[in-house]
Amino acid sequence: MTENINPKKNRFLTNFQDERIILVFLVLLIAFPFVMNLITGTGLNEGVTKFWQGQFIVFFIMAVFAMSYDLLMGYGGILSFGHAASFGGGAYTFALLMKHWAPNFMSNYRIMVGSINITEAIVLIFVFLAVLLISILIGLLFSATSVRLKGAYFAMLTLALGSALYILVKATDFHQWTGADEGLHGVPVPLWLNPTQNRLTIYFISLIFMFVCYMVMKRMVNSPTGRVIIANRENEDRMRMIGYNPVVYRTIAFVSSSIFAGLAGALYSIWNTSASPTMISAVMTINALIMTILGGIGTLIGPILGAAIMQTISQFFYTWFGARWPLVFGILFILIVMFLPYGIVGTWRLKRLDVKNGWKRITGMLSRKE
Amino acid sequence: MKTKKNKAITIAIWVVISIVVVAGLYLYAGKEPFIRTTLSGLTLGSLFFMVAAGLTLIFGLMDVLNFAHGTMFMLGAYMGWQLYTNPTFIFGLMPFILAFSTGIMMTSAIKPYLIRWKLPVKWIEILPRIGYALALIAAFIGFAGIDILELADTAMVAASVATANNPLAEISPQLPFPLFWYRPILLFLSGFFIAFASSKPGVKTEFALKDNLIKKLLVPVGLFVLTIIAIIVRESAPEAILLMNGNWRFLISMLVAVAFGFLFGAVIEIAFIRPLYERAFFIVLMTLGLSFAITELVQLLWDPLAYQMVRPPLFAQPGKAANLLEWLRNGNSTIDIYGVTFPTYRLFVILLGLIMFTFITLLMTKTRLGMIIRAGVQDPQMVEALGINVKRVFTFVFALGVAMAALGGIGAGPFLPIQPLMGDQFQMQGFITVVIGGMGSYVGAFVGAIILGMGRAFGDYFALKLSLSPAIAEASTVIIMVIVLLIRPQGLFGKKE
Predict the structure, then answer these.
(1) One domain for residues A319 and A356
(2) From the CB of residue B404, how many other CB atoms can be counted at a distance below 10 Å?
(3) B 297-326 residues inside an 8 A Cβ radius of A
(4) CA-to-CA distance for B168 and B238, rounded, in angstroms?
(5) pLDDT in tens, B117-150
(6) I need a surface site. Which of A102, A318, B239, B370 has the fewest CB within 10 A?
(7) Residue of B272, B435, B489 lying closest to A148 (CB–CB)
(8) Is the complex ipTM higher than 0.90?
(9) Which residues pair with B90 in a beta bridge?
(10) Are B170 and B89 in contact (CB under 8 A)?
(11) How far is B194 from chain A (nearest CA, A)?
């Protein structure tokens, strides 16, 4: 609304104003390690504080992955069961290059600016560019299949492609490269990025990463292109009638979501200093799906919430219910699908008016009594 | 005219291509490896078909992508295996299930009277809630104190050494009757309370006729009799089954797996999928959740272990049979087929797949129900408009599909390790089969299963020959799928949309 009245105003800034709660959360999350440090008295990089930083890092990364899935499924209306291919593809690209290419390169070449050695930075930039490239390629591969196929056939093909990648990663033929079943371990990351020694750095990097991804995706969804992607979800034939090519917009949705997932995967690989076949398996896709459903489809903020809930649940359910906690979780999931189909955020948005009216009535009654 | 000609040409091209491929493989591999690989391909294809047949029917009719199908396959294997090695689990829980369903089945009999009950508005709201709460409490008290884990307890490699001397070695202890008698009654009450609550007492907008009370009571009374029988034979039946000849026991366990699959499929369709028909997308999520929860439940009951089921005596005798008759007489574990030594059990699996294909073909082409299903695949709305209860057909087809998957599971039991994730692999291949064959076509599922099974078997053969890992062959099935989809996006036998 405000955009129409005041078109000159920077839209990025208006976005910020719309998301005041997000900013509050951002500040809270930035303050979190220090507050934790004050409360517990343990150092910033040890004990409980460090443990919770780790939990939050996983949460941030998984939130980005879930958001990228939401971009695809919630906004694009594309149900892909091979989304983990992008995530794992990013992770494996990063780990493979860092393990097999970077040490060689760094021992052979030294790039200096003045007296500062920037080889490491250049290598990192290059590796991340490669991650981008690979995730774009994976996105293109998946969207290429959507040109000819629709609906269930397409879903099946994505599932099959994803599992084919998973099988290839696990194949013993490439053992010397991918490490087959065990995956790649001990990926040499730069010291300032090391998750055991400099966890706080990664904490902030992944926090900023999540925040930036959220803003970019939000902006993208609200842009004209994003509107067309949503329209594609609603009615493809009508879109074609108006004169948009659905394939192009589906490709855009696919590639952009694949890029976010790939970057998240690379970051996850830094955090674990490893890349394992689980990152590329269907379980990963289903995790993202569950997070998105928990939080609410097509809300972007929902997947973040869903990731937070998943992270908490996997932390506490184990102590509450023992080794078989996923059973409780599965029953919870079934109940949510049955009774809260729009997820937490979606249901909240649906019922917000009711809740507000209820509050008004209650406060009105109270004031009348006074 | 032209389309007919085109069709003939396409079929001719396919036939020529397949002949060339088969001849090429035969010439390349040589006679013995060719026969062996073909037979193992057929075994795989048979299992794929058992999974894919249900998937394709369910999808074709209901547009449901059933992601719990592999789990049903696994459950079928577990149930059959339990009956085969330790039937206490099934017989110990049978009285509960039967008593509970007796209670629930009372719904149609009591509903006409309950909705005509004149109640104050407050009670109309409160009574169902009280009913559900009471049902929960009754079920809880009924189950409290029963160690299900102990009932399900089974040795890893059951019935190999221990049971040779003592066939009853695997049996689990059960509660004595004085501690047991009130539990089925409580479960019956629990089911009855649910029937009471779900028939909405006092709600005048509900509709139910008072007639045919005796006919409506037939099902609950029958279940009641069964419950009594189940309580009586609770301890003797497992022993009787374990003392039986292994072949008969295996036959019974297959029947149990099928019956279990059918009932379980019907329950799942009615309880979890029917409420979501308006939100088709969520059915996929529901099946995913179900698969997740059921897998975890199985891991809770039997631990995340891989069990080995013993082959029934008909396939267990060491030694090679020269021909079919000799095998049937002696029960050899391998048989000689044109100079190739092949396990007899795998031959049985191929046979099972063929029997099932014949059964489905007969069901679909010769019966009225099959006609309705075929019509429903074409246009469900039209079928409903013609006055057929499509929902009931949906439930039947879902149950049938699950039953077929369960049969596949118990069929795979004796030669695959029985473990919680055994179905996932088959589900994946089942999906690929269905996509290759065309969704909704059982003939397509059959052809697709054979193509895929052959692809896997020859892929493994070539992978071995070229010293690659079998994983490459597994991944290459996706290539078959992509090729088929590029040529015919609707699958080989699918109808064009």
Answers:
(1) no
(2) 29
(3) 297, 299-300
(4) 9
(5) 888 888 888 888 898 999 999 888 888 777 777 7
(6) A318
(7) B489
(8) no
(9) none
(10) no
(11) 18
